[in-house]
Amino acid sequence: LLFNLACEQGVYEHDNVKLLLALCKPGTYYFDVGANIGLMSIPILQTLPDVHVVSFEPSPSTFPYLEQTWASCGFRSRWQILAKAVGNRSGASDFFVAEPTFGAFEGIVDTGRGGAKRSIKVPITTLDAEWAALGRPAVSAIKIDIEGSDLDALVGGKACIAATRPYILIEWQLRNFRAYGRTSPMLLECANQIGYSVYS
């Protein structure tokens, strides 16, 4: 589905890609949380030659395609891909897997979007843990698109966010939030707690 959209549009989520290209700073890291097949990672790597990218994709149906993208590109030395979910703790997590066509709708909770799903276990990590493992580098941008568990990813990245003050691009959907027992005001309150403003 995402690959077809990218072909139709010429680039996937054109406005978001343009925004990320403007926000990623030379000599820093960009974290792509919920990378799918790498469509929001490749433009950064291709256009910004001294930016490093870490992409997180826990889906066992989707990660092999992300691996193919990684293996066939010329930026592997600056691109790390991790088959892990991102949340507010490390260990293992339930993960609801859909048919491969609807991999973009998979997540830690079954939101009811993307058809029938089955539950499996996947590794889960935090942004803080992965940032520390990298040696606490400067991070200029974080994109989070993980079908409703976005707030957990922010909570698990508070040290990284406090130290590096990256721009954060989050795409959330109300139906996903409801499945997690969350509301949009909770996201605004989280932004307030970490000293961030919400621009759109």
What would you say this structure looks like, in words?
The protein has 200 residues and is of the alpha/beta class. Helix content is 34%, strand content 20%. A five-stranded parallel sheet has the order 3-2-1-7-8, sandwiched between helices. The radius of gyration is 16 Å and the shape is globular.
Task: List descriptors.
alpha/beta; three-stranded mixed beta sheet; 200 residues; globular
Tell me the distance between the termini.
26 Å
**Count of separate DSSP helical elements:** 9
Proportion of residues in helical segments: 25-40%
The SSE order reads HHEHEHEEEEHEHHEHH
Cα gyration radius (Å): 16 Å
Q: Determine the strand fraction and express it as a percent band.
A: 15-25%
Task: Tell me the layout of helices and strands.
Layout: H1 2-9, H2 14-23, E1 29-33, H3 42-47, E2 52-56, H4 63-71, E3 79-82, E4 85-86, E5 91-97, E6 118-125, H5 127-133, E7 139-144, H6 150-155, H7 158-164, E8 167-170, H8 174-179, H9 184-193
